[in-house]
Queue: 3 jobs
Job 1
Amino acid sequence: MLENINLRIKKFNRTTYVADGMLRLKRKIDNSLRLGFKAYNMNGGQYKLMFGRLLGSACDQLYEDSMRITLEEFFVTTNLTQWSWGMCPIEGTTGVVKNYAPTTIGDHIPAYVPGSEKWKVELYFAENESNILGGVIVYASLRTNLSLINYG
């Protein structure tokens, strides 16, 4: 699904980190695929699964109203000018990301998630429960007030 994701995290200013790099989507995303996630917390030197779920169809999940600001702020930092809100399918493509600083990711974190220095989140596309096609892994630190302070 996703290949050659090469995002580097760098300090933009005293308080902000940004991601720069390239990503390549090698298969189109449409409603025949499902979007899923798993969240792990570091415990005893190992990441332990805290929760996860295979959600509904990929386009329906990506274009939920609650995701609009997050996706729009991401795509405005890329050269993917052919993307627009609600577009489905999303054809395979290569994009360059420049100075992406997520400001709304914390809005998607449930209140019961404890603040911790070491989290791993897998976002993936699947055809069904047993056939995961690929995705991305994000490592993050959360303050106890649940705002993202570092990622990469």
Job 2
Amino acid sequence: MKRVVVGLLAVGTLAVAGVALASPAWSAPDLRACALGADNPEWIRDGVIYGNGGRYNCGTSKVTLTVRVHKDLALRPDPAVGRVERADFTNGDLGTEGRCDGNGLYYTWTLSDTGNELESGRVRTC
């Protein structure tokens, strides 16, 4: 009798596990979170640099999003060489072109009016 009960419990456990594995949406939460992006800027043609930023997985909430390209200067404020701003922005990419300001390190800076911001890595270009 004991073997029959253990056998039935094992079969029942496997059946419940099979349902859970067949329906992962029941147990796995959506882990995507609203986030900003800032790609490394790229030289696109003589004297012009391009920076791309964005906002992703943010649903329908709207912000004012700003994407800027800056030249990294030691011990001085970093000048913006390109800038774009868009109000009522929800999700997607936003890019800007800027004028090269000589050879140096450049980066893309994405800012939201919520206070969130993200800088890309530095890239030597121009």
Job 3
Amino acid sequence: MNEAHFNRNLTVEDALRIEQLLKPQEKIWSSEGVVTIAMLFVIGMILGKVLGSSVIAIGITSMLGIVVVVMIPKALDKSSTRAKRKYYTDNLKDQEGALTPEKIIVITEEVTSELKWSIFNRLEVVEELAFVAKGREYLGFAPYMFQSPEDWERCKNLIIEKKKSQPHG
């Protein structure tokens, strides 16, 4: 038997971890970042002329820079995480299913889906988490979703095997 049966849902925390892994890597120097730094420099120059002191202007500009570059994105990310957590919890449907060498079967109260491995463009096993994804849509798996450690091992092995057999894997 080369199937791995699951009968629980992924936790919100694990779903958020997968979403983080699926996020495209951000460039260190984006065009928006360069424009922001240039604008802060211009603001500092203007403040230096108005206040007559470049030291005060540099201090004010530095504080503005910290707020713009560090604090605002962190606040937005925290708000986004809360919204994702609420959305995930509100839309969670009990599911069960199996991973087989041919497909992944997901059964909910309303529908049974049979997904061929070939539709997924990303297959990963990371620590105690495994997932298959097409773009930003994914199915995630963790050990607690499976009835036995053997099923969890079969799940990981199937995903690793299918990743190796992908043309771009």
